[in-house]
Design brief:
Number of helices of chain A: 2
Mean pLDDT of chain A: 88
Largest interface: A-B, 35 and 27 residues
Strand order of the largest sheet of chain B: 5-6-7-8
CATH architecture of the largest domain in chain B: 3-layer Sandwich
Structural class of chain A: mainly alpha
Number of strands of chain B: 10
Strand content of chain B: 25-35%
CATH class of the largest domain in chain B: Mainly Beta
Number of domains of chain A: 1
Radius of gyration of chain A: 17 Å
Helix content of chain B: 10-25%
Oligomer: heterodimer
Order of helices and strands of chain B: HHHEEEEEEEEEE
Radius of gyration of chain B: 33 Å
Low-confidence stretches of chain B: 1-7
Distance between the termini of chain A: 9 Å
Helix content of chain A: over 70%
Strand content of chain A: under 5%
Distance between the termini of chain B: 73 Å
Number of helices of chain B: 3
Structural class of chain B: alpha+beta
Number of strands of chain A: 0
């Protein structure tokens, strides 16, 4: 079982990781839009797949945070 | 002064516990608690943003796929013999909202491009003397032979209009971005 202090560190790290992933997705949207306007349609589907994978990672991290939170609250 | 809000009494010393007015008992407003965001809520908010960005990326991919499958109609744009070397003419393709420019280079080659500058959408003009298409708004230049940006702020090439010559008639048959 984690201590409260460990949980806070974990929360902060995971939140930071989620934030970094969101920034990568933001960059992907900008790059995809630029490619669309530039006529390079071949990169659009891989960009969408990469963004969906990042969303799944984020959802997994959120689940981890919620579980961790409830475990710490229960203590 | 409001009867439920007696002002501070300078001679009273320690005022003791704050008296809660009646209205606050009936309508408790806990501003600090309302503004408090837990890490869990923050992570949820970020994940929602992540979902929106993934949806935006999927929408962009769909638009790209639809555009790829689009077939444009062949449209008569000019008589080839009517354009002298170094000359140009304007037309619209594929819709009336899309201005294009047909140029004949000094070597006699016929080329057509979108007239919309890829920087900020000003109309480009033909500069036959320097063999380029020139955007007067921000002094952007595109090569006449390929439509590539050669100077100024534009970074993307001008979309090229694919043409077919049938006898003396020139037909626009597609757009190559």
């Amino acid at each position: 079982m984690e201590t409260r202090h460990q949980a806070v560190t974990l929360f902060t790290s995971v939140s930071l990781l989620i934030g970094v992933i969101v920034i990568i997705q933001l960059w992907l949207v900008a790059a995809a839009l630029d490619a669309l306007l530039g006529g390079q349609t071949s990169v659009l589907v891989p960009a969408a797949i990469a963004s969906a994978v990042l969303l799944l990672i984020n959802a997994g991290l959120l689940r981890l945070i919620i579980r961790l939170d409830s475990r710490v609250r229960r203590k | 002064m409001h009867p439920e809000y007696p002002g501070p009494d300078p001679g009273a010393g320690d005022p003791g516990p704050r008296r809660v007015p009646r209205w606050e008992e009936d309508f408790p407003i806990q501003t600090e608690r309302d503004h408090y965001v837990t890490r869990r809520e923050f992570a949820k908010f970020l994940t929602l943003g992540s979902a929106l960005l993934a949806a935006a990326n999927a929408a962009i991919a769909l638009v790209g796929l639809r555009r790829k499958d689009e077939h444009l109609p062949a449209t008569l744009i000019a008589q080839a013999s009517s354009i002298p070397p170094g000359g140009s003419m304007l037309f619209r393709y594929p819709t009336d909202q899309d201005p294009c420019i047909l140029v004949r280079s000094r070597s006699g080659e016929l080329l057509a491009y979108s007239q919309v500058c890829t920087h900020l959408s000003c109309a480009v003009v033909h500069d036959a003397e320097h063999g380029q298409l020139f955007c007067p708004c921000h002094h952007g230049c595109f090569s006449e032979a390929e439509g590539r940006p050669t100077a100024g702020p534009p970074t993307r090439s001008l979309p090229r209009i694919k043409m077919e010559q049938r006898g003396d008639d020139l037909y626009a048959v597609g757009v190559e971005v």
